[in-house]
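Supplementary notes for students who missed Thursday's class. We covered one full example, reproduced here. Read the sequence, then the structure, then the short commentary at the end.
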Amino acid sequence: MLLMTAFSVGCAYYNYYYNAQKYFKVAEKSRKEDVAGAKTKKSSASPYDKVTESANRMLLYYPNSKWEDDALVLLAEAYYRQGKYRPAITKVDELIAKYPSSQFIERGLLFKGLSLIWVAQKDSGSVLLGQLAAECEDKSIVAEIYFGLAENYFHDDRWEPAFDQYKLAAEAGSPDKWIRSAAWVKMGDCLGHLKRYDDAVKLYDGILAEKIPRRLQFEASLQRASALRNSGQYQAAFDVCEKLLDDAAFAEEFPRVQLEAALCEKALGMPDESRVRLEELLDDKKQGATSAQAQYELGLLIWEHWKDYDGATTALKAVKSAERSATAGVAGDSLLAEVEALSRFWLRMRFLDRQQVWIDSARAGLRPLLPADTIWVDSLAAPPKPKAPEKGRKGKVKEEKKDPIALMVEAAMAADSLAQDSIRADSLRKVAVADSLAKGLDSLQIAKYDSTRQRDRQGLYFGLAEYHLFNRRDNDSAQFYFAKLLDSGVTGDLWAKGIASRAYIARSQGDTLGSDSLYRLILENPPDDEWRNRALRIFGQEVPAIEKSRTEMLVDSAEAEWRIKGDVEGARMIYLLASETADSGDTIAARALFAAAYLTRAELHQDSLAGILYAQVGELYPTTTYAKAASKYANKARKKIPTKEPGGAAPTETDEEALEKAEYEAMMQSTSKMPEETDVDKIYEAADVDELPKMLTMPDVVEANLRSFYPFDAYPESKRGEVEVEFVVRSNGETTDPKVTKVTPEGYGFDEAALSVFAKLEYRPGRLKGKPVNIRFKQVFTFKPPEDR
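Structure (token representation):
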């Protein structure tokens, strides 16, 4: 009876271990079929869950059993495959402590070393794996060391070291045919990321000539198609995709093949076929990275080929709904912003083109140009959609009686975002109300219309050029629009800005001679003294002292009255006097009037008068930088805020007024001087720039990395860590020179963990005077213990 009991117990714990091994084989088969992580949709449950469940039951119910060391190393590997690196390390330490002479020690050390790498203990993990690779005679373990290191590099987008480690894994001589083949396939993937497409094609040709697992053969073929497309061999790439679809193997991967085929069709000049294929791919509303990429490619195609704003924005907004964490999400947001910005430029350009047709017709005598001509309204691509007719009590349709002039004004305001400006709308209304039977304009008035349109077009060229230069970082397109601007006969300040911008591009590309020759044009024919002095500074020449104008001296006097003497009423009067002299042009006069309006509201609390002064800034100086801010502050001034009663105390400063004051101070400082050309190599401090860098990485991704890289040494004491990292955000968005400036508490590895998290982040560069510059920036990373998350 005792023998039967012992036998039944032995069978029980062996059954747990046997089941764990059986589940492990199934999980490994699934992992190897998804070597590229390419499946379109994954279950939230891991195939290794049953492995850990069965093995842990064996250890719980039957401790110190015969197969305990087997179960411990099996658990360590299963946890590692699940991404649960700290439990994997714990199981290996338990194995070493209880069974120091076990035959599974080397395999356990393999997964401990790799797990340490993933939890940001890179030094400890590297030393452990280096010793293991040098001493271990099992070539399978050596190959897995190199493969695991390569996977970590690949995950961090470090393609060159990943390529080297994959190569070592392939050449380690492992009897495992899968790991050799998978390493070669991932090497090709690294070459693709490095844009070495021809080398990738050659490598894939060699791989496909060998006898490798069919799943890897499929992966190599698909990646070969991508490399062919990127190297310009579009038809060959498309043929590979067609062959994969005809083969009908691995049907669950067809969305990836369809996506690659659609990209090939687009490159072959078949946009309609590409769009149909992408829309069919998205019909089933599948989620995942492939669907997100397909949505992005569809939006890009619709925008690039058809300039369909609505269709493109609809597709791009759906990118994150398909897969929020996909890399296409960031690209989709960027492209969506670009579509919205460029569409406004191009709609405005079309509007100007239509106006020019009318003006040219009038100049040629083909038709009269009347004061009430609806040039603005006729520029619409399509009339506004009519509303549904309103019905009366008895069901009869009411005949809507609406002033045709009002209809024209509404349509015009809907046509162009610029028409939302109340001043522009009022001027349009005055033109519309004019007598439609008036005589045609004479040639001088037509020329005036033409001149206005030309200036608008030149401003549009400059805006497009700057957008391409600083937002899209597309120097070629920027050069194109700067050339159109300069060919349009532009003069004055805008001409100098165009020349200076082209000089900036030349210098950023290392063409110092070209930059100097362009600035010599400004020096030979400067539009004003400021531009002459700027050119002199570029050539290192002495800039002559400039005598201040009467207006500038009055502004300085007003500043002294306010800032030093504290006489706000006196300062306001001097500011108003300065605005009336206007002997230094619009900018200094607008500044003075804006300052007077600000003091009237913020310091003297006379809101009605402040609103009038703010409105005058927009009316008298609409082209200055102060006009837009004045409109915002005018709206605030119109709100009913308690004013100072005669003989009473001034109301206390609200949070809103404090914020307005801070905004005002920043604006007055940033616009007090003419913008100089920023130094492309200089590193600016955060306090010296107008706009700080902004993190582009989504908050949930940052939080996930903070959890993943929480230091192993901090777990026993559940420490909370804060690390301040200082780094430079370059003008091209690259982050460099990271260093830890503060860490609390020390000695737990929070500093190394913070640098690992930092390596995963992306930033949008900050700006100085409208241009991206290199900025020294600081970021604080807070690591929370598991119980606080």
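Commentary. The chain has a mean pLDDT of 77. The first helix runs from residue 2 to 33. If anything here is unclear, bring it to office hours.
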